[in-house]
């Protein structure tokens, strides 16, 4: 019997990993050939940040999870082959970042991850990415 993406992909695992800055668990949720695309003020649609492969994505999550910040996941919508959610982040200095993420799922893993994010211009003078 075939297994659907929703039977294999557990959104709660993703949510817990993000909210607890667990880079290893996050990396384990991706397919080997996964792709991550991030669009924000510094990486516009004409030139987004694109990470190809599980190792590059794991390095991204290790960096993000090593930062002194909090993460809150909500507004999730989960389907058979796609999930979407909003992540709200806060740094101790008052900088807030909001990201809208869409995940394409394949065989219970994230195959493509697309993020559009924005941060407080005033309190985040350097335009950090989350």
Structure write-up:
The chain is of the alpha+beta class and 130 residues long. The chain has a single domain (5-119), classed as Nuclear Transport Factor 2, Chain: A (Roll). Helices cover 24% and strands 42% of the residues. The protein has helices at residues 5-8, 11-19, 23-28, 54-65; strands at residues 30-39, 49-52, 70-78, 82-90, 96-106, 109-119. A six-stranded mixed sheet has the order 2-1-6-5-4-3. Strand 3 and strand 4 form a beta hairpin. The longest helix is centred in the middle third of the chain and has 12 residues, at 54-65. The N and C termini lie far apart (39 Å).
CATH class: Alpha Beta
Classify the fold: give the CATH topology.
Answer: Nuclear Transport Factor 2, Chain: A
Biggest sheet strand order reads 2-1-6-5-4-3
| Beta-strand content | 35-45%
Radius of gyration: 14 Å
Which geometry do the CA atoms define? Answer: globular
Sequence-ordered SSE layout with sheet pairings:
Blueprint: H1 5-8, H2 11-19, H3 23-28, E1 30-39, E2 49-52, H4 54-65, E3 70-78, E4 82-90, E5 96-106, E6 109-119
Parallel strand pairs: 1-6
Antiparallel strand pairs: 1-2, 3-4, 4-5, 5-6
């Amino acid at each position: 019997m075939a297994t659907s993406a929703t039977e294999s992909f557990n959104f709660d695992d993703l949510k817990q990993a993000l909210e607890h800055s667990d880079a290893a668990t996050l990396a384990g949720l991706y397919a080997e050939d996964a792709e991550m695309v991030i669009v924000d003020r510094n990486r516009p649609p004409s030139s987004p940040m694109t990470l190809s492969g599980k190792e590059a994505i794991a390095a991204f999550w290790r960096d993000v999870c090593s930062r002194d910040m909090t993460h809150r996941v909500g507004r999730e919508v989960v389907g058979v082959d796609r999930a979407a959610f909003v992540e709200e982040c806060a740094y101790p200095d008052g900088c807030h970042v909001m990201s809208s993420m869409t995940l394409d799922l394949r065989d219970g893993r994230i195959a493509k991850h697309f993020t559009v994010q924005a941060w407080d211009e005033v309190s985040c003078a350097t335009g950090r990415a989350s």
